[in-house]
Specification:
Layout lengths: L4 H7 L2 E5 L11 E3 L1 H7 L6 E6 L7 H16 L3 E6 L17 E6 L2 E7 L6 H12 L4 E3 L3 H11 L5 E5 L6 H13 L4 E5 L2 H6 L9 E6 L11 E4 L6 H12 L4 E3 L9 H4 L4 E6 L4 H14 L5 E6 L13 E4 L8 E3 L4 H11 L24 H8 L11 E2 L5 H7 L2 E6 L4 H17 L6 E6 L4 H6 L7 E5 L6 E2 L6 H10 L6 E2 L3 H9 L12 E6 L5 H13 L5 E5 L4 H7 L6 E6 L4 E6 L5 H13 L6
Parallel strand pairs: 1-3, 2-4, 3-4, 7-9, 8-9, 12-14, 13-14, 17-19, 18-19, 22-24, 23-24
Antiparallel strand pairs: 1-5, 5-6, 8-10, 10-11, 13-15, 15-16, 18-20, 20-21, 23-25, 25-26
Helix pairs in contact: 3-4, 4-6, 6-8, 12-14, 14-16, 18-20
């Protein structure tokens, strides 16, 4: 259904534009003869060429806009060149006057599309049209409500939809949607329309502006049920779309039992507040239903969490039922008494704002538009864009050095894209990690810029950015799936120092494992230990647990005990073999969970669910 948008970047595009020569500020365009240009076309090489003759200046405005488009097109792997024609040139691209007013889109030496230059009226139109032509599989253009309903029905239970309305093809909003589709097109089905009637059919009142909706279809199993729809309320810009999609990917509701001041979620990273619905054991289910309703109302605006008062070590005022925490660093939490859901919504909406970036007077003229720098990740990249990172602390890998490096030493590899804000923000965290581990780790920290080595990233099954993988000799690479931060990645690396599941050989060693003594240096990074208990003849059950332990590696410590005296432990902890013992070190408790007829994926789910009740970061 959704082809990889990254393949487009990998194979490369040649984009040829016909014009009449005009000597303007196009110094950034490489100048080639037609023969030289065509000789450079090859599979995997992207090229944007402007064919020009030297006797008419009437396309000066278009040349200026094309020059503005050089950098953004290069960010998507499309380089730019200007090809100078002479009167004797016989190439069809240096031919008739009418041909000189068209734009030609190539992949390698194959013509894909041609556009009249008057449709490429500015830099936004150029970028939007090029990406739209390339992403025809990722972005479906529709004109009727029936088209939308058909796509929605076909994706129920399978995938979510990113639906957008723009006033016209080639507008800044259209460009923003195409840039988002280039990044997220493999994860969601992008659907685009320019029909106001279609926008009206889904109940939108303010139809004068562009709109972006997220259709929650993946969780819908009943084909008669309509997909929930969440509207992005911010202006339709690339960074806003990224920020909005990240909130759609986050859990709708999370249960926590820790100090609200210490909780960290993706919402805070994106500059959104947190709302804690305070609950207690006696009213937990009713409170959870209320919290879910609030979470749907605030989706994309705030993170919603269910705070379990009974398990808290910090005091919360007796009558408090809502705790509000702003996203600003250092902001204190507010303890509130709100008995109406609308009051909670109002509280969030009246207190949500995005920090403005103040541009210094001496900034260069090529700085990004401050009107759209409202994504906290991109803001970080912008704010520190002139800071020189100590990249020498990590090893840069290429297609030639990658295999030899990961075979020669255990390696952590960061796959990132130099054109993407999230990648560049995480690169800073990755360098911070290198500083923390300098001189103490046997793991080699490396990086691959997929903007330069797209084939290598494709071979390593990297289709979105950033991605971190751990390579160890003789083992399949392990992907890091945690939050994009220094401490979380550090935890992943340290927990991977031991080979899970650990083979426990005696009852005494098992007790030390469950108490946290066996790996006490790792307890700060994993306050939970999981032990699988089996009798020696439970071969299939042990294989399933081992597979689950491998999957959970870097997330939690797992061990396995299958000696003849396993019954000693099962009797002590009231567990029927096969069983799972979950040791919570903070609470000093050991919980037993039966594993009869549980396959590997079931065990992973059991452990994940058990951890989620207390550990929000898993």
């Amino acid at each position: 259904m959704m082809c990889s948008s990254y393949n487009i970047y990998r194979v490369g595009i040649s984009f040829v534009i016909m014009c009449i020569f005009y000597k303007s500020a196009v110094d950034s365009l490489s100048e080639l003869s037609p023969q030289k240009y065509f000789s450079t076309l090859q599979p995997g090489k992207a090229s944007l060429a402007y064919f020009c003759q030297a006797d008419s200046p009437r396309t000066s405005i278009f040349l200026e806009e094309l020059n503005e488009a050089v950098k953004p097109l290069q960010d998507f792997g499309i380089s730019v060149a200007k090809v100078n024609c002479v009167k004797e040139e016989t190439s069809r691209y240096c031919g008739k006057e009418e041909d000189l007013m068209k734009v030609y889109l190539f992949r390698g030496n194959i013509l894909l599309r041609e556009f009249p230059t008057d449709t490429l009226f500015d830099v936004n139109a150029i970028v939007a049209h090029v990406l739209f032509a390339l992403l025809f599989n990722e972005v479906k253009y529709i004109t009727t409500a029936e088209d939308l309903q058909s796509i929605e029905n076909s994706l129920k239970g399978k995938a979510n939809i990113a639906f957008s309305y723009v006033r016209a093809i080639g507008t800044p909003e259209h460009r923003a949607v195409m840039e988002a589709a280039f990044v997220y097109g493999t994860m969601y089905q992008f659907v685009l329309t320019t029909e106001i009637a279609l926008l009206e059919s889904i109940g939108t009142e303010a139809i004068e502006n562009a709109h972006f909706y997220f259709f929650h279809c993946k969780q819908v199993l009943d084909l008669t049920q309509q997909c929930r729809r969440t509207l992005m309320e911010q202006p339709l810009a690339t960074l806003n779309i990224h920020r909005f999609i990240k909130t759609m990917e986050a859990p709708l509701l999370t249960e926590v039992a820790e100090d609200p001041q210490q909780v960290s979620t993706v919402h805070l990273q994106l500059g959104l507040p947190l709302v804690f619905i305070v609950s207690q054991q006696a009213t937990r289910e009713a409170d959870r239903r209320t919290a879910e309703w609030v979470a749907w109302r605030l989706l994309g605006k705030a993170g919603v969490l269910l705070l379990l008062r009974d398990s808290l070590e910090v005091d919360i005022p007796q009558h408090t039922n809502v705790v509000f925490r702003r996203a600003e660093e250092g902001a204190s939490v507010e303890f509130l008494v709100l008995h109406d859901i609308d009051l909670i919504i109002s509280r969030v909406e009246s207190n949500t704002h995005i920090e403005e970036i103040q541009e210094d007077e001496d900034e260069d003229m090529e700085s990004p538009d401050m009107d759209i720098q409202d994504d906290e990740v991109a803001e970080t990249v912008y704010r520190y864009r002139k800071t020189q990172l100590p990249l020498e602390l990590t090893v840069e890998l290429t297609e030639e050095t990658f295999n030899a490096t990961v075979v020669a030493s255990d390696s952590i590899v960061l796959f990132y894209a130099g054109w993407q804000a999230v990648s560049m923000a995480f690169l800073q965290s990755y360098i911070d990690l290198a500083i923390k581990l300098k001189g103490t780790s046997t793991m080699l920290l490396t990086r691959v810029n997929c903007a330069d080595w797209s084939d290598l990233c494709t071979k390593q099954n990297v289709t979105e950015f950033p991605v971190v993988k751990m390579y160890k000799e003789g083992k399949h690479p392990v992907s890091y799936t945690g939050m994009l931060g220094t401490e979380n990645l550090l935890k992943f690396i340290l927990l991977n120092r031991i080979s899970c599941p650990v083979n426990i050989t005696s009852v005494q060693e098992a007790e030390e494992y469950l108490s946290g003594e066996l790996y006490k240096d790792l307890i700060p990074y994993s306050s939970v230990s999981v032990l699988g208990l089996f009798s020696p003849n439970m071969t299939r059950a042990k294989e399933d647990f081992t597979e689950a332990g491998n999957y959970l590696r870097g997330c939690v410590i797992t061990g396995i005990y299958s000696e003849e005296d396993a019954l000693t432990l099962s009797n002590k902890y009231a567990a029927t073999l096969p069983a799972l013992l979950l040791a919570r070190h903070k609470e000093g408790e050991v919980e037993s969970i039966p594993l009869a007829n549980s396959r590997a994926q079931d065990i992973v789910q059991i452990v994940t669910n058990a951890l989620l009740e207390t550990f929000v970061s898993i």
